[in-house]
Amino acid sequence: MQYTRLEMQFRPKGLRRGVLVEGVVAGRVLGATIHASALQVTDTLVTRRQARRRHELATHVLGASKTELPLDYVTVDVKTRLLTGRTELGRVAAVWCDRQSGLVTHLLARSGGGTLRIVPAELIERIQPDGVRLKLSRSDFDHLAPYRSDDAIAADIALAFETALPDPRARREVKVRVEDGHVTLAGTVSAAEERERARRAAAAVAGVRGTTVDLVVEEALADMVEAAVAHVTATPELVAARVRVFTEHGIVYLEGRVPAPAARDAIERASIAVPGVRVVVNNLLADGEPPSRAADTGPLTRNR
Fold first, then answer.
1. Which of 26, 119, 139, 233 is the S-S candidate for 238 at Cβ 3.0 to 4.6 Å?
2. How far apart are CA 282 and CA 255, in angstroms?
């Protein structure tokens, strides 16, 4: 799965025996150099082995003594404190930054109990050598969203759906995608009540940071397809078309007659484009075709 962000997870060793290489290195690293004003990762602190494996030349070498960095640049690692006033809230465990620009989007904060919390960049007041100062209180920090992996969230949603959607067939029709804690639900459900139950079950899972519900209610799917067909047949050339629409589990059945084969194809294309439609079974007959066409050749079927 391709994210729009890069994640830098800090190793426990921190700044020891590392080299700085230019740009962002995703994965387990020793630290990162951040332009404090721009909140942009400029260099990554990696082990010598990592640098050799990437065929990178070190921009700085960090040995027993700390390397002097330019003004307004700060090196952040696993020992960097998160502060509000004089109170330490936790330590930085990871940095998320934009894949293209290197701008910091979030920090992962590890509190004293080991819980990981997600700190959006807009809550960072400033980054300085003694730590990262945040624009929130201890209470606000404790109420930040906890971080959990996408796989763990998806597994819990599957468990929650066993109660929210008791019918196994209904669960199969709902497709779940989790990216950075944001859940997208797509597919079809038989009724609006099922759609709401699925949304509530997903939103209640720990670590979910937001939901997008693209579920189509089966009861409304036929109306949506009929509206799409009506739009196609609204022209004077196709006003004589007589189309009946039936739906079942995302499968659309088209029955009736149309003036020409081109009209049949246009109606099929409009039907498959409706969100929630998985398959179109096209039993439409064009004027002038024998009634036995469907029996002889079978219906035209198109998958999304």
1. 233
2. 7
